[in-house]
Amino acid sequence: MPAAPAFQSEFLKTFAARGAYYDCSAPQDLDALFAKERVTAYIGFDCTADSLHVGSLVQLMTLRRLQQAGHRPILLMGGGTTKAGDPSGKDETRLILTPEQIEANKQNILGGIRHLLKFGDGPSDAILVDNAEWLDKLEYIPFLRDVGRHFSVNRMLTMDSVKLRLDRDQPLSFLEFNYSIMQAYDFVELYKRYGCKLQSSGSDQWGNVVSGIDLGRRMQSAQLFGLTTPLITTSSGAKMGKTSAGAVWLNANRVSPYDYWQFWRNTEDGDVGRFLRLFTELPEAEIARLEKLQGAELNDAKKVLATEATAILHGREAADKAGDTARRAFEEGASADGLPTITATLPDGILNLAVAAGLAASNSEARKLIANNGLKLNDTSVSDPKLTVDASALNSDGVLKLSSGKKKHVLVKPA
Length: 415
Hints:
five-stranded mixed beta sheet, Tyrosyl-Transfer RNA Synthetase, alpha/beta, about 425 residues, 3 domains, about 15% strand, Rossmann fold, 18 helices, single chain, Structural Genomics Hypothetical 15.5 Kd Protein In mrcA-pckA Intergenic Region, Chain A
């Protein structure tokens, strides 16, 4: 990761100090821009699923911190670009979604994240835009003539998002090949409409960001800027936001506040300070104190991280409830009202129940969990993957308690 420049503007200094900086274009000019005016900046999110996941959280926190520093964030929803599909980091062509699916995904995503920003008509209030507003209206030949002529195919073939596919002999559709042009055009359109001068993104989008900067210079004689964040991995090198049960989604209907709290509570020891800076709004002095804790006391810092990160996304009440539920379940050994709950028809196989509860992504993963003594039924280890669970296993509360290790518990109510 490149070393952060010695920024003077308040936002960029804080951004770098919180560990969110990876790279930027024209750092001195961007620093001067932040020092002299209210900057309008955007980050785009495609609508390929009905929720964003933790991998998008650094970007969402960037928009939030921009607004808190008095600047104006634009939350750009990719209703138009989703129809093409971003090839970045993908080995296969994306499935083509219908306009109805894209719209439904967009509304569901917004339901889970729009409360992170303050929208309105004030000078630093956030703006919500969908790039379908302009991309859907483009005429093919005029677009190629006015915008496409500024793009070199030679250069596009060297972009990581394209080169990766070609090097692996993976298919790259002509539709996806145009994604970079569409994203670059978004930047120009947002500059024209809102005076947007900055695009922020993950570092894997750098090629697309630079294309937008270049297109702004060619079409508008404007100096536009890019600011990227690092791709987050854990201290052990694993991709952040992946669990045995799949992605850690931001919408509460996909991952409950309790499970979200548990995800942060399970942070590796070496990541506590870094994640407190990236994903909470605690002051630096408090983070410095927490990251110095050792041994069993470090668990207290993890609980603070879990509660503060959950409070930002799901609200303080839900975060406190999740923390209290975890304390009662783990420290007092209770079933604890508030644990994630599913409904299942009994009798059923233990493998099916483990998958339905989200403790494993597949039957094979559930078998591995059992083989490693990691699955418990009513606090007793399961040893037989062929076990059939019936109503006789219900505890005194009339439910089953399934556990993965010591930290993840789900209640199963009979249908």
